[in-house]
Input
Amino acid sequence: NCSVSPRESPPAISLPAAVLHQAHSADPTPTPQTTAAPHKDPERPERGTYQLTDGNGTVCLLAYMGLQLNISFNSVSENKTFQEVVNVVPKSTNVSGLCDSKKAVLQLTADGQIKNLTFVFTLVRSASICSFYGPFLVKNSSLDYLRGSLGYSYMCRQEQTLTVTKELSINTFQVQVQPFGLTGEQFGAAEECQLDEDAMLIPIVVGAALAGLVIIVLVAYLIGRKRSHAGYQTI
Output
């Protein structure tokens, strides 16, 4: 079981838990690896809108994002290491879960390879992620992703990779999520991720450098022109 022990902390949202059920059969016992099974990466995943309502019918969690799973595991029976990239398809994904004042659980259930993917957002800092592929289990109890302030939505336009363990990571695409403090069915003001801020900073720095270069060239031209006129002045 994945459990989060509550304790007080400043208002903030984080991603402390995700549970994934995978259809493949695998063995958690380390074995010598021989060859890697070939795989073909899917295209960029489609963004889906996922929302939860509380007992009063009020929207308590809203997410708009594309999800892609990077999976790696050993198969003893086939003596191979399997590596797969799997997209979460919104139109074939059912949404369920629950909300309360300090925790929101978003459960995505789909046919095919992905059986169950669960995100648990909390207002505490402790974090844990468990991932299941049949009998195969990985767990990480110290993750802190998609963090934002209470009443605001978390936004990241850039692709992110949320590493759970060496066997599993989750790619997010153009994610915007808010599990607490929603007003109606609209996101609160967005707090952008560091990747977006860095991406915006680069063109600003380049533009400032070019502007500085233009000014330097212009000043050098004016100084040179003034000096050239000085030789023709009447004494």
About this structure: Residues 12 and 150 are 5 Å apart (CA to CA). The domain at 13-192 is CATH 2.40.160.110 (Porin).
